[in-house]
UniProtKB/TrEMBL annotation:
The chain crosses the membrane at residues 12-42, 49-70, 76-94, 106-123, 143-166, 178-201, 207-228, 237-255. InterPro entries: TM_pro_TauE-like, TSUP/Inactive_protease-like. Keywords: Cell membrane, Membrane, Transmembrane, Transmembrane helix. It is found in: Cell membrane; Membrane. This is Probable membrane transporter protein. The keyword Transmembrane helix applies. It comes from the Bacteria. Pfam families: TauE. One of its GO terms (cellular component) is plasma membrane. Belongs to the 4-toluene sulfonate uptake permease (TSUP) (TC 2.A.102) family. It is a multi-pass membrane protein.
Length: 263
């Protein structure tokens, strides 16, 4: 695995900071930019190493945030485990298949996923009810099925999958948004760790990049959380801008990788 320059490692810290800032500011979706930032800003050339490295970085950041949510009692452990255990199987299978797929085809599919996420983020969210979590509301078959599917997508693309996990938990249990966000972090961290272990076993993790990304993410996340409080009234506009950025980056990736595939 070729070593990166000092400038590239610095850019990796800045990239991690940008992802962390977005997560702190908007509460989700930011990690989807982790892969294109490493590819096109930092200049890493192996998409599989990028996916393996970002999967571990996202995992560590998710576990760090999980501790804070657990202390605030925003984690419901039984649904978290029920979602995550089948998802581990999905994440491992997804990671194995992802490693087998040629680089350009994998990035092309990743870009399509980014477009879907951007569109979902643009949709106006309905007001959340104050419905409390009830054990009787838990649809375990739905939770385990969703965990398996989301775990597969997480492993295949090396993403956290929180944007899918949160609504899935709310829909299948009736828990509030804040509880779903806290509970989802256990799955995000575990799916990312499963994917990273699979990629690391194949020598597809750059440990220094992971360290830079996590360090930048911690700093950026703290700044983003502070900004979120001050810009709370403009959250919808910020979410819209970020969705447009994701969409533009995705279109660029679609064009570039389509040319590479058919060129």
């Amino acid at each position: 695995m070729p070593h990166l320059s000092a400038l590239q490692y610095t850019l990796a810290i800045l990239s991690g900071g940008l992802v962390g800032f977005t997560l702190g500011l908007l509460g989700g979706g930011g990690s989807i930019l982790a892969v294109p930032l490493l590819l096109y800003l930092v200049g890493m050339h192996d998409p599989h190493v990028v996916i393996g490295s970002t999967a571990l970085a996202v995992s560590l950041n998710a576990y760090a945030n999980l501790l804070a949510h657990a202390r605030a009692k925003h984690v419901l452990w039984k649904p978290a485990v029920g979602f995550t255990v089948p998802g581990i199987v999905g994440a491992y299978v997804g990671s194995v298949l992802g490693k087998l797929m040629p680089d350009k085809q994998l990035l092309f599919l990743f870009a399509i996923l980014m477009i879907v996420i951007a569109i979902l983020m643009l949709r106006k969210k309905r007001a959340q009810s104050a419905q409390e979590f009830q054990k009787a509301n838990v649809r375990w078959t739905r939770i385990t099925s969703a965990g398996l599917i989301v775990g597969f997508l997480s492993g295949f693309f090396g993403i956290g999958g929180g944007f899918l996990i949160v609504p899935g938990l709310m829909f299948s249990t009736g828990m509030s948004m804040i509880m779903a966000i806290g509970t989802s972090l256990f799955a995000v961290g575990t799916f990312g760790l499963t994917t990273a272990v699979s990629y690391a076993a194949s020598g597809l993790v750059d440990w220094w990049v992971v360290l830079c990304y996590v360090a930048g993410g911690i700093i950026g996340g703290g700044i983003g959380s502070i900004a979120a409080t001050k810009l709370s009234t403009k959250r919808r506009a910020l979410n819209y801008i970020f969705s447009v950025i994701i969409f533009i980056v995705a279109i660029y990736m679609v064009i570039e990788n389509w040319r590479a595939i058919h060129g």
